[in-house]
User: What shape does this take?
Amino acid sequence: MPKSKRTAKHAVDERVEPPVEAPADGPAEDPAERRRRRAVFLRELAEARALRERVQPRRTKALRLRQAARMRTFRF
Assistant: This one.
């Protein structure tokens, strides 16, 4: 029986660390830790966008053209 796409998706999600929740009455979140997690998130987001560009080049081109038109429309 072939694996479903849903199972494959969950396998990728397992490598991502679960978010650590600080207690409500505890100290504020450490800024260095927040920056580190943000950097990881942005790195993974860029990787996902690059993958999408390779997998769906036509859709990516259309998105890029729409964004360029939007930027021309709202230029100051």
